[in-house]
Amino acid sequence: MIPIALPLLGDEEADAARAAVLSGWVSQGPQVAAFERDFAALVGAPHACAVSNCTTALHLALTALDIGPGDEVITVSHSFIATANCIRYCGATPVFVDIEPDTYNMDPDRVAEAITPATRAIIAVHQMGMPCDLRAIAAVADRHGVILIEDAACAAGSEIRVNGHWERVGKPHGLIACFSFHPRKVITTGEGGMLTTADPELDRKFRLLRQHSMSVPDTVRHGSPRVIFEDYLTIGFNYRMTDIQAAVGRKQLERLPELVARRRALASRYTELLGNIESLRLPTEPDWASSNWQSYCVRLPNRLDQRTVMQNLLDRGIATRRGIMCSHREPTYSDADQRHDLRQSESAQDHSILLPIYAQMSNDDQLYVADCLKGQLRQV
Ligand SMILES: *Cc1c(COP(=O)(O)O)cnc(C)c1O
Questions:
Q1: I need a surface site. Which of 195, 202, 276, 340 has the fewest CB within 10 A?
Q2: Cα of 202 to ligand 1 centre, how many Å?
Q3: What is the mean pLDDT of residues 301-324?
Q4: How many whole angstroms separate alpha carbon 301 and alpha carbon 279?
Q5: Which residues approach ligand 1 with their CB closer than 6 A?
Q6: Nearest to 49 by CA among 152, 171, 196, 191
Q7: Residue 83 structural domain
């Protein structure tokens, strides 16, 4: 069986988790602080705040910005549902705009059209690790005075060229970037998330909000020679990462450059192996973008039934996934205000499939996947 994805975890991670367990401090503590420093250094961010997952990271980002009822947040429907849900958690209104068909990312022209007087923020997703057109989206945000947040859940290790220099996603290029360390992403802590920002005041708010808005964190009280009573300043949350997760995350971060290099090699090879099939549309990487290839997504010709192709591949021992979901098509968003045309998003969901890609994938397995897919395309 060739899986769709496989995390790369080894003795280094197991030993780090063991050391954290045996240290006697297993909740948010010194490993979390060290993971934040390592992550900030890697992506070039002034501040990084670790949390329990990317969904809570996105929720904290919007909460720290006081986004709430009456506010509109422009984002894509074509994303994992957490992107839209975090807007609803705050009582704000998600306004869905369409994607560009070849990158599966937010179309900057559609963002410009969707701005209203109620627009407070834009959540731009780097879908499947492919950087979205941040320069164009940031220009729209600046022109209208709205906040830009990056949903970089899939994009640890992806890069974007800014003024001639390659910079990692997370620097950040918007006001805040949010990452996920779910096993389906390029590096994992089991569950985990991170917020990066250049704004020290926002970083301070994230740290308060993730820990019940407690005025003095437990780490400080624990080490204090004097008795300290804490206050609870606002309604906060328990969105902490544990030290066990952070210890694993630090080892995963060390592997990140190598993991991305391997995924990029696999993606190039898919492009080589599948490039001569006219009816198959391959994902494109703009010249200012360098994807970590969290997923490799191909567009089937309309004449082929997506589910049948996926089942035929599964029968041959190959796991695939259908194209990224569209939140507006889910029952829970049936009452959502659908002002904008989302036909590219729907078409991408209905006609794309994600192929297996993971660092340990052998060249033979990849060739087998490409051959089986070609076989499907030959059938009428
Ligand atoms: C995975 C994912 C999330 C949610 O991340 P979790 O860490 O699982 O909460 C959010 N947005 C996008 C685009 C994702 O792919």
A1: 276
A2: 21
A3: 97
A4: 6
A5: 53-55, 79-80, 82-83, 125, 151, 153-154, 180, 182, 193
A6: 196
A7: 11-254
